[in-house]
Amino acid sequence: xxxxxxxxxxxxxxxxxxxxxxxxxxxxxxxxxxxxxxxxxxxxxxxxxxxxxxxxxxxxxxxxxxxxxxxxxxxxxxxxxxxxxxxxxxxxxxxxxxxxxxxxxxxxxxxxxxxxxxxxxxxxxxxxxxxxxxxxxxxxxxxxxxxxxxxxxxxxxxxxxxxxxxxxxxxxxxxxxxxxxxxxxxxxxxxxxxxxxxxxxxxxxxxxxxxxxxxxxxxxxxxxxxxxxxxxxxxxxxxxxxxxxxxxxxxxxxxxxxxxxxxxxx
Length: 266
Description:
3 helices, Collagenase (Catalytic Domain), alpha/beta
């Protein structure tokens, strides 16, 4: 199952989030939902997408005791979030083309913050010349031979400029996140994904401003990558509308990251 999430920034201080297919673009986040099931062998793969604005807020919001709110992008029949397996590290690669100077350090810091909150482990497999695509194959044994023939392709983190190819990015979008899951009617798990950002998505090295910093965009997008979607609480980094404040997790974000994190086991 692939879950694209999108972040958009029509105005300098805006960070809009939405829910439809899960693609995140820019300061504002756009969401739309689309399901695609591929042939039965290998196991069915589904694509979910998240759209823009308050319409993208999940109707499955969970409230925590200290007032926070979190929501999973999708859930299994038993009510558990569709998330990564906590048994193995999440491998990722980056495409250096059009990546702003210093952005790799921001990516690593954002993933470190996700890891601390969730218990998930991220492993950087280095650079790649793979370009982001709406039709990205789930398995690429030739390109990523060291992953093994049965392993899913690593998560791709890439930046794009004016030429966005087949990506559904609007002019105001800053980022898109696609989380792909597969499985059966009883249980699905995320196996790979893409996090695609505009080269001007935010200020590099800025983890203090949700509106202006690249750090907040990355943390929000990686929240989508591990299985979280938009909520209606402005105190959360997964909030679905432009907001001010530090690029820090809210109480609901932290509760959600624990639920989709390593505590879920294998």
